[in-house]
């Protein structure tokens, strides 16, 4: 009797484990992409009872400073949702022509981030960072004469931050545009890490740069 | 009836006369000179007036430009002096590192804000590098610290150090602490060197510099006013910025060391947008320090 219950329980759990009840889309169970020969796989949490907790479950952060952001943050900068971010990762990032940028502070980034993202905190893109051009060069900008950069070879960038209530990514986009980064190379994932977590997508824990 | 009419008529004439001739106003004061530069009407007669005269003379001698299209003379504009690049590095941190680098006993190097900025940028570059596989190098830019250390090691004179630092600042290759920027847009190396000596003395167990005894008699541009309050009389001190002054220099002048620049800046926030934006002729309040 005892064995029969155990076997039944095992069968149930095995079928639940293999069936993939929670897909990304009907025809897509996971998303795989590579970043500099490192492979990442994003799936959704298979626990259909899962709930958000902690930081990602907060609804009412004080505004200011955490104010709701518009759908379009700047002319020519397209806004993305989760599926477009995955497409960006599979296409641009895997192909080495784009980067997913996390514009939050290093401390926030360390608590969890989108797999394959790179942390570039928004203050480092502000004009008062004396080393900003070094960052822009690392993103593919090329020196063009006195104090100006050529962005034709620069990478496409998708930026995100904490959520629709965070202006970290919009501020970073504003700084990049002011520095001369072409708007058509910039993308804004408005939902940010909170929307990502809300869809149960894989979150990378403490991926520290370097 | 006639008497009343005549009285009213005379009264009206007197009123009209008063309006037209204004016998009781003490000479209309001009509020602008012939160039249209506003003159401060409540200027206190202090020794600083000489400096004001000098600037007025300078303004008067500025060449007038004529607009080619309209043929009208254009009003001279206030030319903002070029200022050295600044960063938020604290002078005391920088001095500390200079002393540490020169091998001063008991002085440990600290991380300045500029170094922190550099460090965070190099972390980011490492992150991008890990993602893209392309090497990226952080451009080396000279630091004021390194320039001063090299100059002191080479045994340069104060004048020479002043020249070296100001040349680097003018070329824009180095950023300096805000409180070293003078009213004429130079780097106050006097304060820089003075502070190195002061911090070295303190590090070797010497006493902190005493608060100097300043009075309008020995300090150009200083004024003292006595304000009567309910219970006591309070002394209010003012200082008119002279040519070549930096906020650090004013702090040394009144408090003996640079560390009280913040109190001066806070007391004059309405006038100064940032500590490096002081101008000749600005009248600053010198706060009382609570002992």
From TrEMBL, chain A:
Pfam families: Rhodanese
SUPFAM superfamilies recorded: Rhodanese/Cell cycle control phosphatase
Organism: Octadecabacter ascidiaceicola
Extent of the signal sequence: 1-19
Domain Rhodanese: 94-205
CDD domains for this protein: RHOD
Keywords: Signal
Coiled coil: none
Protein name per Swiss-Prot or TrEMBL: Rhodanese-like domain protein
Automatic annotation (TrEMBL), chain B:
PROSITE patterns per UniProt: LYSM (PS51782)
InterPro entries in the cross-refs: LysM, LysM_dom_sf
SMART domains: LysM
Location of the LysM domain: 237-286
Pfam families, alphabetized: LysM
The protein's name in its UniProt record: LysM domain/BON superfamily protein
Species in which this protein is naturally found: Octadecabacter ascidiaceicola
